[in-house]
Amino acid sequence: MNRLNRLTAILTQLQSKRHITAEEISKRFDISLRTVYRDVRALEEAGVPLTGETGKGYALVEGYRLPPVMFDEKEAYSLLLAEKVIEQFTDREISERFKSALIKIKSVLKDRQKYALDHLDQQVAFYSKDIHDSNRNEQVIQGILSGLADNSVLQFNYTSFLKEENTSRAVEPVGMYYSKENWYLIAYCKLREDYRTFRIDRIRNLEIGEAIFNTNHPTLKAYLKKMEEGHELTKIVIQMEPSFVKYIDTQKYNHGFVLQETIGQKVQLTFMVGSLEYFARWVISLADIINVIQPKALSDRLEVLLTTMIKKLKEGGQTQEAN
Length: 323
Known about the structure:
Residues 3-58 form the HTH deoR-type domain. Keywords: Transcription, Transcription regulation. One of its GO terms (molecular function) is DNA-binding transcription factor activity. There is one protein chain. 42% of the residues lie in helices and 26% in strands. The protein has helices at 3-16, 22-29, 33-45, 73-89, 92-106, 111-121, 138-150, 220-229, 276-283, 296-322; strands at residues 50-53, 57-60, 124-126, 152-159, 166-179, 182-189, 194-199, 203-212, 234-240, 257-263, 266-273, 290-294. Strands 3, 4, 5, 6, 7 and 8 form a 6-stranded mixed sheet that branches. Strands 10-11-9-12 form a 4-stranded antiparallel sheet, with helices on both faces. It starts with a helix and ends with a helix. The model has no long low-confidence stretch (mean pLDDT 80).
């Protein structure tokens, strides 16, 4: 990339967020920090209204825009959902191209919209590769995104899954994620006076209230940890050789998969599950290729299941010999 094209790209990137650090620019264009500083100075000399703030980075003066395109709130929030989906459903090259295009799109957003997208990015997640259109409720999802962005109290009617009980709820939204064919809302429920997880397809008549909350709620990642500590979910960590991951690459999304990382020479997978028994009966088919890191209860249960299986196999063999 020649310098003129790089300067234009840097200007576009500067318009995509409220603040951009020199390190971010350096990483994206694979250039040194010294080159970043020279390029920024060149933009300033060309009349681009830039400001710099220690600890935050560079920013453009509010109102400075290149293309005459504007987005409303719903369109801006839809960009975030599109980015999350593209990350899950395309290969790396297409995903990177989309991110590059998205930076250009974000460059025309207002500061408030940029802040909202940055804020929402930590509150929305995909933990599945199976999307079913029948379970989507676009109007409710847009309302939730607005509530997350503005810290607005949401009001809606909810039908519980087990008891099929209808209740009216007022909640402070914390995060939203997609897993196992459904969207879920995590929120602080004023009726229950505690955090709750709501299946979005069971939410009706959602309204964005005028009340704004200032509660410092946990992030999506922190909430999952909180659920684990509260015994609503059990955290399971297993390791295996990289060559074996292909055997569960699709199935893992139906068993509470949330994280995959490389630890030394092993691939480590983290699951958040509601039923350790259900997980144990699935993963028993992988017993010869996995190491259970935690919890010990899973190792103990697998040992019992395997011992029982071996006993039954021996009994079956003896019966055949007798016949």
